[in-house]
């Protein structure tokens, strides 16, 4: 009996996805509890303690103002580290041989790994939003847009992390991009302040930071106020997503650092 | 009959510039056990890795059950199972989870009954809930075999399956290989032990420095390769092989001081006993005797020399 030819290896994608999710749940404490705890600390320090001395920004109380930025901060770092680690690990241990020898296409491999990393990030984002509600009262003006920003950012940065995981051939390299580039950009991306508050030239410079657009757009979905236009924010995410997809396509086409 | 695997003019040059495979042509028959025999560094793993999709070929093409491994990679790869040379396993997964993962990865729907059968055959059933890192090396190798069999492949690659493996696993593995063959699975194994090829294979291919220098039925190859020589150092030199010794493959050596008997290790009767009795009857005395076997090294050297 001849089986019908496979067009999309759904079982393969599911296997990778489940494997990655299981890895996450196995280390529940560090993978879920630690981002939630550290974000909660931000709320206690910046939201409750310092925030009470701060005025409103664009009509939003400071404690509520920092929520979207903090969620984005976690989303960026967790998406990158999760996806990077997910593909780096089998590469490093050698178990990648199995994925390479399986009837799974590039797209399916990416959907499995990146899908799982993005799922984790979105779940974490929601968890942090729920935690924030304990400390600060806030509302969400455009919930669907909020979700769209959340998912798009999680997917884009998981793709980016996946690329880092493939590019890195050592643990140092795995850490260096998130640590040296992403974290500074994220911190300077307006999590804790509005770009409007920066003096003159710094405001212009800040506009070169892609994270500014993410946080601004995300914050708009909460409070209807933003530093830059929402369309601009979406366009930036779109461009980043396209770049990452292009990068991954190139990597697999050329076999770069995966196949010998 | 179409071949289950057809390797055509396959070449591989690594990024370092090293040419690991040179123009390899090889057809594997459906249902056979094929041994790829060659010393370390000959290119066995490279060849297998290309067929399985882990290494990109530099030249040539490969058809698995008629499917081009590059253009029709899905159809080709779902038929292939691989047990790599090195122990490469996850650490934190359970045995059951990792074997089920492999089945899914190869596009097969969940089938607990099949996974159970595979685990039982490999004596892993009792360990199914254990984490892989808690297992011994031998058990980990069994897990890797189970993973390779999880999706019911038609072609199974075993890369140096018995290197560093204990006697029990070796025995189990050969029993499993025979059972798989009875079920119609084609098995291709690599080894650098001639005895192993001899024990298991229907056909043997010899690979040396990236070139496939010979492919033959085991029986024919063993007759050719598996020769031993018995050298008798004589008390008195001889001018010629005595008349009464016709029928024995004898040669004089060392200016008639030594008589060399070449015999086939494959036959039941080596004829040594009869030869010695005959020499005694003829009054040919010898000081000492010594036997030598052509080593794999000699065989390669001879093969390479005979080709050039
Ligand atoms: N990634 C690589 N880059 C360069 N040379 C390699 C690589 N992998 C293997 N080789 C070389 O190719 C040759 C064949 O290796 P391999 O196929 O592993 O041989 P075998 O399995 O027969 O021992 C060896 O000389 C090895 O050093
Ligand atoms: Mg090898």
How would the blueprint of this fold be written?
The complex is a heterodimer of chains A (260) and B (308).
Chain A: H1 10-26, H2 28-50, H3 62-93, H4 96-101, H5 106-135, H6 143-167, H7 171-187, H8 200-206, H9 210-223, H10 230-254
Helix pairs in contact in A: 1-5, 2-3, 2-5, 3-5, 3-6, 3-7, 3-9, 5-6, 6-9, 6-10, 9-10
Chain B: E1 5-13, E2 19-28, E3 33-37, H1 44-52, E4 59-64, E5 67-68, H2 73-77, E6 80-83, H3 95-105, H4 112-121, H5 137-149, E7 155-159, H6 167-182, E8 186-191, H7 194-200, E9 203-208, E10 211-217, H8 218-225, E11 227-234, E12 250-253, E13 258-264, H9 272-282, E14 286-293, H10 296-307
Parallel strand pairs in B: 3-8, 3-9, 6-7, 7-8
Antiparallel strand pairs in B: 1-2, 1-4, 4-5, 9-10, 11-13, 11-14, 12-13
Bound molecules: adenosine-5'-diphosphate and magnesium ion.
Can I get a quick summary?
Chain A: This is Transport permease protein. The complex is a heterodimer of chains A (260) and B (308). Chain A is mainly α and 260 residues long.
Protein described:
The complex is a heterodimer of chains A (260) and B (308). Chain A is an all-alpha fold. Chain A has one domain. Helices cover 75% and strands 0% of the residues of chain A. In chain A, helix 2 packs across helix 5. The radius of gyration of chain A is 19 Å and the shape is globular. Chain B is of the alpha/beta class. Chain B folds into two domains: 3-222, 3-Layer(aba) Sandwich (Rossmann fold); 226-307, Alpha-Beta Plaits (2-Layer Sandwich), CATH 3.30.70. Helix content of chain B is 33%, strand content 28%. Chain B has helices at 44-52, 73-77, 95-105, 112-121, 137-149, 167-182, 194-200, 218-225, 272-282, 296-307; strands at 5-13, 19-28, 33-37, 59-64, 67-68, 80-83, 155-159, 186-191, 203-208, 211-217, 227-234, 250-253, 258-264, 286-293. Chain B has a six-stranded mixed β-sheet with strand order 6-7-8-3-9-10, sandwiched between helices. In chain B, strands 2-1-4-5 form a four-stranded antiparallel β-sheet. Chain B is elongated and about 75 Å long. The relative contact order of chain B is 0.14. The interface between A and B is medium-sized, with 28 and 37 residues. Bound molecules: adenosine-5'-diphosphate and magnesium ion (MG). The site of adenosine-5'-diphosphate has 12 residues of chain B, from helix 1.
């Amino acid at each position: 009996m001849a089986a019908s030819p496979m067009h999309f290896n759904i079982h393969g994608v599911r296997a990778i996805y489940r494997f990655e999710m299981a890895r996450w749940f196995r280390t529940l404490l560090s993978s879920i509890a630690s981002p939630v705890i550290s974000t909660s600390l931000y709320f206690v320090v910046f939201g409750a303690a310092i925030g009470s001395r701060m005025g409103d920004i664009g009509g939003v109380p400071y404690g509520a103002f920092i929520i979207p930025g903090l969620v984005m901060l976690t989303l960026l770092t967790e998406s990158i580290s999760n996806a990077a680690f997910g593909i780096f690990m089998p590469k490093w241990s050698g178990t990648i041989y199995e994925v390479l020898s399986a009837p799974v296409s590039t797209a399916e491999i990416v959907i499995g790994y990146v899908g799982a990393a993005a799922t984790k990030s979105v779940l974490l984002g929601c968890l942090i939003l729920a935690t924030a509600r304990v400390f600060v009262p806030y509302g969400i003006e455009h919930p669907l847009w909020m979700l769209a920003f959340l998912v798009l950012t999680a997917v884009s940065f998981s793709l980016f992390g996946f690329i880092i995981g493939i590019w890195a051939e050592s643990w140092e390299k795995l850490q260096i991009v998130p640590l040296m580039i992403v974290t500074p950009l994220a911190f300077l991306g307006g999590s804790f302040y509005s770009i409007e508050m920066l003096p003159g030239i710094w405001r212009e410079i800040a506009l070169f930071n892609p994270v500014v657009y993410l946080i601004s757009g995300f914050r708009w979905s909460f409070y209807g106020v933003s530093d830059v236009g929402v369309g601009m924010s979406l366009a930036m995410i779109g461009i980043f997503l396209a770049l990452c997809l292009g990068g991954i396509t190139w990597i697999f086409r050329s076999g770069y650092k995966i196949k010998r | 009959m179409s071949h289950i695997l057809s390797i055509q003019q396959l070449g591989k040059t690594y990024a370092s510039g090293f040419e690991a495979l040179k123009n390899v042509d090889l057809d594997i028959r459906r249902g056979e056990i094929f041994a790829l025999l060659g010393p370390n560094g000959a290119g066995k793993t490279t060849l297998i890795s290309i067929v399985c999709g882990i290494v990109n070929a530099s030249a040539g093409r490969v058809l698995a059950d008629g499917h081009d491994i590059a253009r029709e990679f899905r159809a080709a790869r779902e038929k292939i199972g691989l047990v790599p040379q090195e122990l490469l396993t996850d650490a934190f997964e359970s045995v059951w989870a990792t074997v089920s993962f492999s089945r899914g990865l190869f596009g097969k729907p969940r089938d607990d009954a099949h996974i159970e059968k595979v685990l039982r055959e490999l004596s892993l059933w009792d360990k199914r809930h254990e984490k892989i890192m808690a297992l011994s090396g031998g058990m980990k190798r069994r897990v890797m075999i189970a993973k390779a069999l999880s999706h019911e492949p038609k072609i199974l690659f075993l890369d140096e399956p018995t290197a560093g493996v204990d006697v029990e696993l070796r025995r189990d593995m050969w029993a499993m290989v025979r059972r798989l063959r009875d079920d119609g699975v084609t098995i291709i194994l690599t080894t650098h032990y001639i005895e192993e090829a001899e024990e298991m294979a229907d056909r043997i291919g010899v690979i040396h420095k990236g070139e496939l220098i010979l492919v033959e039925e085991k029986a024919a190859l063993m007759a050719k390769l598996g020769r031993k020589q018995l050298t008798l150092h004589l008390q008195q030199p001889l001018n010629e092989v005595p008349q009464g010794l016709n029928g024995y493959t004898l040669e004089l050596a060392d200016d008639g001081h030594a008589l060399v008997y070449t015999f086939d290790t494959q036959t039941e009767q080596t004829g040594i006993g009869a030869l010695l009795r005959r020499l005694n009857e003829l009054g040919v005395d010898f000081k000492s005797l010594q036997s030598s076997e052509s080593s794999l090294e000699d065989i390669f050297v001879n093969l390479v020399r005979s080709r050039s």
